[in-house]
Design a protein that fits this description.
single chain, alpha+beta, Helix Hairpins, SH3 type barrels, Alpha-Beta Plaits, five-stranded antiparallel beta sheet, four-stranded antiparallel beta sheet, 8 helices, 51% helix
């Protein structure tokens, strides 16, 4: 039997199975399909599964009485609402711990915790706790309204009533709300902390306790003052960061200004060279002449120091002057006036 000639020595289709499909020889691999064809096939399978499930469920759902469908639908919505609310309520404490840990991690490491660091940590914990309570209240409120709507109740009157009640409570308890907001911003802005000496109005004392509603001060005589945070206006913090130790001294009017300045600068030079040794935080500043009353010229010496070491810093200034001025008086054959301690001037932190 004669064979027809095919170019390239290929066999006719009918001799390779008649279908034209590629046949695999031993040792050959199946060619890979394009990714687009695979994803398209998967989507088609998914759509087919969903269509099949809906074709099975819909007739069953349609066969149920309307009351049963309403109950099942409401139950499903309520279940989903409760599950979402529980998930959010579980998320709130985790967020609180995360924020608290991040705030602690931002502080200096490998150091002993100081009082200010402890107060900062307590302040962050308080703010986080308050924010968490507000978040929980919002979740409960939204979940309650959603559940009421799911069981068929008209929540519009409920919301309107809640709004009216909120306005009434707000008017009745506006001072309490104001106190809480005031306490929140005092903590957030770090205006003062427990242990600080502050002045609020005419009251000056040490902060012994702080809550979201009141600040408790104890003055120098011992009584406690409970001050609502909402009524706090201007606050003077006398122990925030640093204060100035100030000493005023007068020189005789007959002493030349340059000579008096040189004597005072020489008197405080040891304090300038080693300020930390004398409980100071920086160089001693000499101001003047400030005043002249016909007999004496007034000068002022001041230096920054730790608020808790203000008496020691002021005593260092006084001691330096009392050591130097008698020698200067002998040298000038003049009587320098008595050194006056003018106290300290509060400065912003």
């Amino acid at each position: 039997m004669a064979l027809s000639h095919q170019p390239g020595g290929q066999r006719p289709p009918e001799e390779t199975g008649g279908s034209g499909d590629q046949q695999l020889h031993p040792g050959e691999c199946v060619p890979a399909r394009p990714a687009g064809e695979v994803s398209s096939a998967a989507m088609q399978n998914t759509h087919g599964s969903v269509r099949g499930a809906s074709e099975f469920v819909l007739p069953f759902w349609s066969a149920l009485p309307e009351v049963v469908r309403m109950v099942l639908g409401a139950g499903l919505r309520i279940t989903v609402t409760i599950l979402v609310a529980r998930a959010l309520l579980r998320l709130v404490p985790r967020l609180e711990r995360f924020i608290t840990q991040r705030a602690a991690a931002r502080g200096p490491k490998d150091t002993v915790a100081t009082a200010s660091m402890i107060q900062q940590s307590q302040r962050v914990e308080t703010l986080v706790r308050v924010s968490g309570s507000v978040a929980r209240a919002i979740v409960y409120a939204i979940a309650t309204v959603t559940v009421l709507a799911s069981i068929g109740l008209d929540v519009t009157p409920v919301l309107a009533g809640a709004g009216i009640a909120g306005v009434a409570v707000g008017f009745g308890a506006q001072t309490i709300v104001k106190d809480f907001f005031g306490g929140f911003f005092i903590l957030m802005e770090n205006q003062y902390a427990v242990g600080d000496t502050i002045s609020i109005g005419t009251i000056t004392g040490t902060v012994e306790e702080m809550t979201m509603r009141v600040t408790v001060l104890r003055d120098a005589a011992g009584p406690l003052h409970f001050i609502p945070n909402g009524g706090i206006g201007t606050v003077t913090n006398r122990t925030h960061s640093w204060q100035r130790a100030i000493v005023d001294v007068s020189s005789p009017w007959s002493v030349p200004v340059e000579r008096a300045r040189a004597v005072l600068q020489a008197a405080v030079q040891p304090l300038v060279d080693e300020p930390a040794k004398f409980d100071l935080r920086g160089a001693v500043e000499l101001e003047g002449p400030l005043d002249f009353n016909g007999e004496k010229v007034t000068w002022r010496l001041s230096a920054r120091c730790d608020p808790k070491k203000l008496p020691q810093g002021r005593a260092s200034l006084l001691a330096a002057l009392q050591r130097a001025l008698p020698r200067a008086a002998d040298s000038d054959r003049l009587d320098w006036s008595k050194v006056r301690d003018e106290g300290s001037a509060p400065t912003p932190g």
